[in-house]
Specification:
eight-stranded mixed beta sheet; binds magnesium ion; binds adenosine-5'-diphosphate; alpha/beta; 410 residues
Length: 410
């Protein structure tokens, strides 16, 4: 069976006009003789009547008390509304479809409500419906526990639904339709001349996504790469194929294109707090105690830098006060906090061992009078921590310095 999975994000299903474009892509896939599974997100972004954040705000207005299980029941409504609306619009066009909830589609998760993990996918029902010639519309972002409880998959969950179904159904492609032309060298909302990338490896995509490129969720890409299902990230508003995310070694013809690229893109993550702790001579076990305490309280730490006289790390702004209180109350430490910082990442599979990349980053930021509060590197990424107010300037400066607005920038 030649199967295609198409996923349409919130803005793609937001209005009758954008849904017309959705139907255009569905018709195109049917004309190409695909058996079609369509995954949809809830309609629109925050403020739109049936968007996920709007549903959440109904509870916040009451003070926010709602058990996670019940929160998932509420949140799962957004995708149901979107899926059934699309089904009716397809019926108007004479296209038969069936709507399946995550559970009905065979997506089984653990019982970690609001952020559940998929444990298996049983695509039997989907196959049955496809065999009857129907377009199968699946509500994204949700699954069901073994005992029938509805769960949701956390942020970016519809991307995960799409690639998990792609893997289970051995689809030819998973197409992630969104409101940009593909994966770009930087967030187009920040860098005006960011350019779409024709191809990226799963590895590059995971790195970009982990460091803040929110165009697709990293978990979704990790799932796709388990069986090398090619993913295309593309615009709902055009017929362009967008960015192909695939495995370099499987696609020999791509080697030249990808291998030469030094920097793939620049990403940013706002709203982090830098925590600094002075270490006195002989306090050898302090590092262990600090990170153990953070772990005990479920606070995730990033950007860790340790030397004999200082410990520095970052936490999300909204966990900073809690982290500081733990250090004070449980370890008797008075930490130095620097709130509202941003992590700016220069990502590229080709960075490893190339001299001069860090020098260029420092040069780009110094030219703009941007102070580097902390830096770190791995073989694929160089991170710098800057003040929040410098974030946009920093991303633009790095994008310019590495000439990422030019398609052949290597
Ligand atoms: P959807 O609702 O379709 O899932 P998202 O908002 O999750 O859409 O993802 C699309 C958005 O990702 C774009 O509008 C863009 O602003 C943002 N984005 C951030 N970084 C990048 C990048 N490097 N390339 C493309 N888009 C990016
Ligand atoms: Mg998304």
């Amino acid at each position: 069976m030649k199967i295609l999975v198409q996923k349409f994000g919130g803005t793609s299903v937001a209005t009758p006009e954008t849904r017309k474009q959705v139907i255009h892509h569905i018709k195109q896939a049917l004309a190409e003789k695909y058996h079609l599974v369509v995954v949809v997100s809830a309609m629109g972004r925050n403020g739109a009547p049936y968007a996920t954040d709007t549903l959440l705000s109904l509870v916040r207005e009451n003070g926010g008390a709602l058990a996670p299980r019940e929160q998932d029941l509420l949140l799962s409504c957004g995708e149901l509304i979107s899926a059934t609306t699309l089904s009716s619009q397809l019926a108007t066009c004479g296209i038969a479809s069936v709507v399946l909830t995550g559970g009905q589609a065979g997506i089984i998760t653990n019982n970690q409500f609001t952020n559940a993990q998929i444990v298996k996918v049983n695509p039997k029902r989907i196959y049955e419906e496809l065999k009857q010639g129907k377009v199968v519309i699946v509500t994204g972002f949700q699954g069901q526990t073994e005992d029938g409880e509805i769960t949701t998959l956390g942020r970016g969950g519809s991307d995960t639904t799409a690639t998990a179904l792609g893997v289970a159904l051995r689809a030819q492609y998973v197409d992630i339709f969104t409101d940009v032309e593909g994966v770009m060298t930087a967030d187009p909302r920040i860098v005006e001349d960011a350019t779409p990338l024709e191809q990226v490896t799963y590895y590059e995509m995971c790195n970009l996504a982990f460091e803040g490129a929110k165009v697709v969720h990293p978990r979704a890409i990790e799932i796709a790469m388990q069986t090398n299902i090619p993913v295309r990230i593309r615009s709902t508003m055009s017929d362009h194929f967008g960015t192909l995310v695939t495995n370099r070694s499987e696609q020999n013809e791509l080697v030249g294109e990808i291998h030469d690229r030094l920097i793939t893109g620049i990403t940013q993550m706002a709203s982090v707090t830098q925590i600094k702790i002075a270490v006195q001579q002989g306090q050898f076990d302090l590092h262990l105690k600090v990170f153990q305490k953070m772990a005990d309280h479920g606070i995730s730490v990033d950007f860790i830098s340790v030397n004999p006289s200082e410990i520095a790390y970052t936490v999300k702004d909204d966990q900073a006060e809690q982290a500081a209180a733990i250090l004070r109350d449980e370890l008797g430490i008075e930490p130095l906090l620097h709130p509202n910082c941003a992590k700016v990442s220069t990502v590229g599979a080709g960075i490893a061992g190339i001299p001069g990349v860090m020098a260029k980053i420092v040069e780009a930021l110094t030219e703009e009078d941007i102070q580097i509060l902390q830096s770190a590197d791995s073989h694929t990424t160089i991170w710098v921590l800057v003040k929040g107010e410098d974030m946009v300037k920093a991303v633009r400066a790095l994008h310019r310095k590495f000439k990422l607005h030019q398609v052949n920038n290597h």
